[in-house]
Amino acid sequence: MTAGGECVSSSEIRVALPHHLRTLAKIEGAEVRLEVAAPVTVQRILDALELRYPMLAGTIREHGTGKRRAYMRIFACEEDWSHEPMDAALPEAVAAGREPLLILGAIAGGWESQ
Amino acid sequence: MSSVRVLVGTRKGAFILNSDGKRNDWTVSGPFFAGWEIYHLKGSTVDPNRLYASQSSSWSGQVVQRSDDGGVTWNPVGNKFAYAGVPGTHQWYDGTPHPWEFKRVWHMEPSLTDADTVYAGVEDAALFKSSDGGATWEELKGLREHGTGPHWQPGAGGLCLHTVILDPSNAKRMYIAISAAGAFRTDDGGETWKPINKGLVSKYIPDPMAEVGHCVHHVAMNPSRPDVLFMQKHWDVMRSDNAGDSWHEVSGNLPTDFGFVIDVHAHEPETVFVVPIKSDAEHFVPEGKLRVFRSKTGGNEWEALEKGLPQKDCYVNVLRDAMAVDSLEKCGVYFGTSGGQVYASADAGDNWAPIVRDLPGVLSVEVQTLK
Fold first, then answer.
1. Distance, CA of A67 to CA of B321 (rounded, Å)
2. Chain A partners of B36 at a C-beta cutoff of 8 Å?
3. What is the side-by-side order of every strand in the sheet holding B3-10?
4. With an 8 Å Cβ cutoff, are A18 and B319 in contact?
5. Which alpha helices (DSSP H) does A3-64 contain, by range?
6. Buried b (16+ CB within 10 A) or exposed e, B215-241
7. Domains of chain A
8. CA nearest to A37, candidates A68, A80, A4, A6
C-alpha cells in the first residue's frame, strides 16, 4: 500500500550478475533475489539492486544518463533485452521469479592502451 | 625497524609486496580486485594504512576502493565523477570537437595533511577532489575550464590527467600533467590554473612551441626542492628550476630520450632516474637491454644501470606511473614492466633484483616507507 492508499503488488525476482560484479558487491551465490513492485522493468530491478548494493551504481548503467553501459548486456527468457526501453515490462516469468534476469558482460571490449 | 610496502597496479588486479628495511626478502599478497584494471593505488602519508585504489574495466566502468588497514581489507567508495556544469568539447584525434566524457581514474593522490582528502586525475582530463575519504567527488573545474580546454587533444592512451604533484611547502600549489595538453600549475588550491609549458618543443604539433598541446608523459619532484621539476616528455627529458615557469632539455647522452617514467632520489635532489624507450613507434627498451639511466648532475650526464637487469632479448616497456622511490637511508628504487616484473634496488640503482616477476602487465608502482 502506498502513502496515497494505492495497492501495489510486488514480487521476488531473481537477478544473475557477472562474476566481477558479484565480487565487487561481495555477493555469494549465483543470483540475487529482490522485491520489486509491479510492473517489473529493468529500471525498477536496477533501482532495487543499487539500493541494496550501492557499489553497483555506475557499473551496469551510467551515472547521470542512466544508460546501459555499452558492454553490458541484459537477457530475459533467452531474449536480448539490451536495446529495449528500460521501463518496458519484463516477461511474466521474470516478474514472477520463475526465470532470472541475466546481466552479462559482452564478449567484447577490454584492453585499451595506457 | 623500518619496513617497505610496494603497491602495484596491473592490468588484472592489484598486488602488495612487503619487506623489512633490508629489502632482501619479499612477500606478495593479492591479486586484489582480480580481473580488473588497476591503474593506480597510493597510500596517505598522514595515515599510511589509508590506501586508495582506482579500479576500472571497459565493461563496468570506474570503481574506487579504499583500505583503512594497509591493504588487508578494502571497500568500494564513491565512483560518481560528474563534470561541473556543461563540460563542452575538446579536440578529437582528427581535430574535430568531441564532448568531454568521463572514462577512468588514472592517478590517485592523497593529501599531505588530511587522510580523508584525495585528488583523482581522470580521463577525459580533469581533476577531482574528495574531502570525505572518497565517498563523494567534486571537480576542480578551473582546470578544465582554463581557456585552452577546447584545444586539448588526446594522446594515444586518451586525454588523460595522469600526474598530480602536491607541493609540501605550499598547500595552495599543485602541479598536474595531461597527455596531450601539457603541464599546469595552480597557486590557489585549484581554483585557477596556468599552463607551464614554456621551453617545451614538440615537433609533432602544428606549433612546436605552443602554450598547450605537448604530450607530457610524467613529472617528478624531490619534496626538499619543490621548485625543481623533472619531466619525461613524449620525446625529451626536461628540467625546470622555477616551478615550471620555464623548462630546458637535459636529455644529454641518453641513448633515446623517448620514455614514460621519471623519478628523483629521495635524498639527493640532483639524482634522477629514467628508463629510455626505443621510440614512439616501438614501445620497448632499446637493444633488448633493460637499463635504468641515472643522472647525479640533475640531467645531461647519464649513466646506464644494468646490474641485475636483463641485458639480452628484453622487450618490455615501463609506463609513466610505474616507478617510485622509498625514503630509507639508502634510497630504494622500484619499477614495474609491461611484462609483469617488479624490480627493486636497495642502493639507489647500483644493483637490481626482481622482487616479483610474473604478474600481469604493470601499470603503476608506489612505495610506502613504514616506520
1. 32
2. 20
3. B27-32, B13-20, B3-10, B362-370
4. no
5. 19-24, 42-52
6. bbbbbbbbbeebebbbbbbbbbbbbbe
7. 10-105 (3.10.20.30)
8. A6
* Cα A14 to Cα A26, A44, A87, B207, distances in angstroms: 17, 13, 17, 58
Are the CB atoms for B250 and B299 separated by under 8 Å? yes
CATH assignment at residue B206: 2.130.10.10
Which single residue is written with the C-alpha cell 561541473?
A: B84
DSSP state of A40: P
**What's phi and psi for B144, nearest 5 deg?**
-65, -30
CA A111 distance to own-chain centroid: 25
Range(s) of the domain holding residue B139: 3-370
Number of structural domains, chain B?
1
Q: Given the cut 0.85, state whether the ipTM is greater than it.
A: yes
Identify all chain B residues contacting A17, using CB atoms and an 8 Å cutoff.
Answer: none
DSSP string, B192-205: S-EE--TT---TTS
* A72: chain B residues, CB-CB within 8 Å: 59-60
Residue A109 has pLDDT above 70, yes or no: no
* Contact: A71, B36; criterion CB under 8 Å: no
Answer for the pair A58, A65: CB distance below 8 angstroms, yes or no.
Answer: no
pLDDT at A110: 53
The C-alpha cell at B207 is 606549433
Whether the Cβ atoms of residue B215 and residue B179 lie closer than 8 Å to each other: yes
Residues facing B344 on adjacent strands? B334, B353
State the pTM of this model. Answer: 0.95
Cβ neighbour number for residue B301 with a 10 Å cutoff? 12
Query: Counting one residue from A and one from B, how many pairs have CB atoms under 8 Å apart?
Result: 62
Under an 8 A CB cutoff, do A112 and B58 touch?
Answer: yes
With b for 16 or more beta-carbon neighbours within 10 A and e for fewer, the B123-142 pattern comes to bbbbbbbbeebbeebebbbb
- What's chain B's Rg over C-alpha atoms? 19
All cell numbers assigned to A8 = 501495489
* Strand-pair category, B303-305 with B292-295: antiparallel
* CA quadruple B74, B78, B81, B84: dihedral, nearest 10: -140
pLDDT averages per 10-residue partition of chain B, 371 residues: 95 98 97 98 98 96 98 98 94 94 97 98 98 98 92 93 98 97 97 97 89 96 98 97 98 98 98 97 97 98 98 98 97 98 98 98 98 87
Scanning the structure block, which residue is given the C-alpha cell 563540460? B87
Angle at CA B160, nearest 5°, toward B299 and B7?
70
pLDDT band at A108 (very low <50, low <70, confident <90, very high): confident
